[in-house]
Design brief:
By secondary structure, this protein is of the alpha/beta class. The chain has ten helices and eight strands.
Length: 269
């Protein structure tokens, strides 16, 4: 699979199909492998580029956590897309990837055609919330490095946010766990420190400047992100809100058919 060096960091990605580029950004602890059943369907009518975000998958895991900031990550993605001659993109992000996608779209409107945010957030609104979350993420990063990947994956999978995923077939759960275990612990720890929700700048006050038509997706078993998506839908100039029944935080994993139908219809429309 191809890699490119951008801004002194190596990025791993896949680039398949032809037509208008669709860029896929995974969530925390994820990688491009999370899209392996989504990509073959999207690439029937699109050029699909899936990217391992810094610290994940086979992309670089720098030692300095500040290198993982959402500002530098968005700059890296812009540089990568420039080298791939990917313009007028449809940008699709899930969870952490949705936070990156939203920041990227606001910072780089010249790249944008359409935006899809699945279980995404514009960040925290107050400095108190940000400071508390930063402290929590740094503590979690230390726990990861002290206890190792296997223990961290077990802890992560027990979060209430992912409770609905326990209903998935055992094979699907095992596949996701195996993918998570392939990540570099230093990369994940530094991603938490450098690009956690507390570390990113709040985007709430900038949302009315987003010009790209935006599809907001959340699962109805994930009330926190349903509420965030509903607020976003009221603020964004061109937003479509879709709440998927009987789905949790990871809609594209739990309800793939419904997710693909929403995304494909949105991109075509």
């Amino acid at each position: 699979m191809p890699v490119r060096d951008v801004n002194n960091a190596t990025y791993h990605y896949t680039d398949q199909g032809s037509g208008q580029p669709v860029i896929l950004l995974h969530g925390f602890m994820g990688s491009i492998l999370n899209w392996d059943t989504i990509t073959p369907i999207l690439e029937r009518h699109n050029r699909v580029i899936a990217i391992d975000i810094l610290g994940h998958g086979r992309s670089a895991s720098p030692a300095n956590f500040r290198r993982y900031s959402i500002e530098e990550t968005a700059s890296d993605i812009a540089a990568l897309l420039e080298t791939l001659n990917a313009k007028s993109i449809n940008l699709v992000g899930y969870s952490m990837g949705a936070r990156v996608a939203l920041y990227f779209a606001l910072a780089n409107p010249h790249f944008m055609n359409k935006l899809v945010l699945e279980s995404g957030s514009p960040g925290l609104e107050t400095q108190i919330e940000q400071s508390s979350r930063i402290a929590s993420d740094h503590q979690l990063a230390r726990w990861l490095l002290e206890n190792g990947m296997a223990a961290f994956v077990e802890r992560w999978e027990q979060l209430p946010l992912f409770a609905s995923q326990t209903r998935l077939p055992a094979e699907a759960q095992a596949k996701q766990k195996a993918q998570r275990l392939q990540n570099d612990p230093i990369g994940l720890a530094n991603s938490l420190r450098g690009m956690g929700t507390g570390s990113q700048p709040s985007l709430w006050e900038k949302l009315n400047k987003l010009t790209a038509p935006t599809l907001l997706i959340a699962g109805d078993l994930d009330p926190k992100y349903c509420a965030i998506a509903a607020r976003l839908a009221q603020i964004l100039p061109q937003a479509t809100l879709q709440i998927v029944p009987d789905a949790g935080h990871n809609v594209h994993l739990e309800k793939q058919k419904a997710y693909l139908q929403l995304v494909q219809n949105f991109l075509k429309g």
